[in-house]
Amino acid sequence: MVLRLSQKDNETLVVKVFETHFEKLDEDQKHLELRGIINEYDPVFLLWFAYEDEYDGEIETINEDLHTSVDKTEVYELVHYVFKKRFNISWEDDIGWMGRQDYINMAKDIFNWLNYGLS
Q: Helix/strand/coil (H, E, C) string of 22-34?
Protein backbone atom coordinates (compact mmCIF):
# COMPACT_ATOMS: atom_id res chain seq x y z
CA MET A 1 0.00 0.00 0.00
CA VAL A 2 1.43 3.36 -1.01
CA LEU A 3 0.42 6.59 0.66
CA ARG A 4 0.64 9.80 -1.30
CA LEU A 5 0.37 13.01 0.67
CA SER A 6 -0.46 16.40 -0.74
CA GLN A 7 -1.49 19.76 0.60
CA LYS A 8 -4.61 21.51 -0.45
CA ASP A 9 -4.92 25.24 0.16
CA ASN A 10 -1.77 25.08 2.36
CA GLU A 11 -3.90 23.84 5.26
CA THR A 12 -5.61 20.55 4.54
CA LEU A 13 -3.60 17.38 4.29
CA VAL A 14 -5.05 14.98 1.73
CA VAL A 15 -4.07 11.31 1.96
CA LYS A 16 -4.62 8.97 -0.96
CA VAL A 17 -4.03 5.26 -0.57
CA PHE A 18 -3.06 3.22 -3.61
CA GLU A 19 -2.81 -0.54 -3.80
CA THR A 20 0.42 -1.54 -5.53
CA HIS A 21 0.64 -4.05 -8.35
CA PHE A 22 2.33 -6.58 -6.03
CA GLU A 23 -0.51 -6.40 -3.50
CA LYS A 24 -3.08 -7.18 -6.19
CA LEU A 25 -1.50 -10.49 -7.24
CA ASP A 26 -2.06 -13.98 -5.86
CA GLU A 27 1.02 -16.02 -4.91
CA ASP A 28 1.13 -18.02 -8.16
CA GLN A 29 0.99 -14.89 -10.28
CA LYS A 30 3.71 -13.21 -8.17
CA HIS A 31 5.92 -16.25 -8.69
CA LEU A 32 5.38 -16.38 -12.46
CA GLU A 33 5.97 -12.67 -12.97
CA LEU A 34 9.08 -12.66 -10.77
CA ARG A 35 10.33 -15.75 -12.63
CA GLY A 36 9.98 -13.83 -15.89
CA ILE A 37 12.16 -10.99 -14.62
CA ILE A 38 14.83 -13.23 -13.09
CA ASN A 39 14.95 -15.60 -16.08
CA GLU A 40 15.44 -12.61 -18.37
CA TYR A 41 18.68 -11.86 -16.52
CA ASP A 42 19.69 -15.52 -15.97
CA PRO A 43 21.96 -14.59 -13.01
CA VAL A 44 24.11 -17.75 -13.03
CA PHE A 45 23.87 -18.46 -16.78
CA LEU A 46 22.06 -21.78 -16.42
CA LEU A 47 19.04 -21.32 -18.66
CA TRP A 48 20.81 -22.13 -21.90
CA PHE A 49 20.74 -25.79 -20.78
CA ALA A 50 18.26 -25.87 -17.87
CA TYR A 51 14.48 -25.62 -17.58
CA GLU A 52 12.67 -22.33 -17.01
CA ASP A 53 12.00 -23.35 -13.39
CA GLU A 54 15.74 -23.58 -12.61
CA TYR A 55 15.66 -20.55 -10.30
CA ASP A 56 12.34 -21.37 -8.59
CA GLY A 57 13.99 -22.01 -5.20
CA GLU A 58 15.66 -18.60 -5.32
CA ILE A 59 12.45 -16.99 -6.55
CA GLU A 60 10.52 -18.45 -3.60
CA THR A 61 13.09 -17.10 -1.13
CA ILE A 62 13.08 -13.66 -2.74
CA ASN A 63 9.28 -13.58 -3.00
CA GLU A 64 8.93 -14.39 0.72
CA ASP A 65 11.05 -11.37 1.67
CA LEU A 66 9.62 -8.89 -0.82
CA HIS A 67 7.12 -6.31 0.25
CA THR A 68 6.16 -2.94 -1.14
CA SER A 69 7.96 -0.94 1.52
CA VAL A 70 11.42 -2.02 0.34
CA ASP A 71 13.56 0.37 -1.66
CA LYS A 72 15.78 -0.40 -4.66
CA THR A 73 18.86 -0.89 -2.50
CA GLU A 74 17.10 -3.45 -0.31
CA VAL A 75 15.88 -5.34 -3.37
CA TYR A 76 19.44 -5.37 -4.76
CA GLU A 77 20.89 -6.65 -1.47
CA LEU A 78 18.23 -9.38 -1.20
CA VAL A 79 18.60 -10.62 -4.78
CA HIS A 80 22.39 -10.47 -4.78
CA TYR A 81 22.60 -12.26 -1.42
CA VAL A 82 20.18 -15.05 -2.41
CA PHE A 83 21.99 -15.89 -5.64
CA LYS A 84 25.48 -15.60 -4.19
CA LYS A 85 24.57 -17.78 -1.20
CA ARG A 86 22.61 -20.44 -3.12
CA PHE A 87 25.32 -20.92 -5.70
CA ASN A 88 28.21 -20.61 -3.21
CA ILE A 89 29.87 -17.73 -5.00
CA SER A 90 32.04 -15.28 -3.10
CA TRP A 91 30.99 -11.63 -3.21
CA GLU A 92 34.17 -10.76 -5.11
CA ASP A 93 33.69 -13.49 -7.72
CA ASP A 94 31.65 -11.69 -10.37
CA ILE A 95 33.86 -12.84 -13.24
CA GLY A 96 31.98 -15.40 -15.27
CA TRP A 97 28.77 -14.60 -13.41
CA MET A 98 26.37 -11.74 -13.61
CA GLY A 99 28.15 -8.57 -12.46
CA ARG A 100 27.10 -5.99 -9.88
CA GLN A 101 25.61 -3.62 -12.45
CA ASP A 102 23.46 -6.46 -13.79
CA TYR A 103 22.19 -7.14 -10.24
CA ILE A 104 21.46 -3.42 -9.85
CA ASN A 105 19.50 -3.43 -13.12
CA MET A 106 17.59 -6.56 -12.11
CA ALA A 107 16.80 -5.00 -8.71
CA LYS A 108 15.43 -1.89 -10.45
CA ASP A 109 13.22 -4.05 -12.64
CA ILE A 110 11.95 -6.01 -9.61
CA PHE A 111 11.35 -2.79 -7.67
CA ASN A 112 9.39 -1.31 -10.56
CA TRP A 113 7.41 -4.54 -10.93
CA LEU A 114 6.57 -4.48 -7.21
CA ASN A 115 5.08 -1.04 -7.46
CA TYR A 116 3.90 -0.61 -11.04
CA GLY A 117 3.63 -4.06 -12.66
CA LEU A 118 5.23 -5.44 -15.77
CA SER A 119 5.62 -3.14 -18.71
A: HHHCCHHHHHHHH
Render pLDDT for 35-51 as a digit per residue (tens, 0 to 9). 999 999 998 888 989 99
pTM summary value: 0.78
Q: How far apart are CA 20 and CA 110, in angstroms?
A: 13
The domains of the chain are located at 25-116
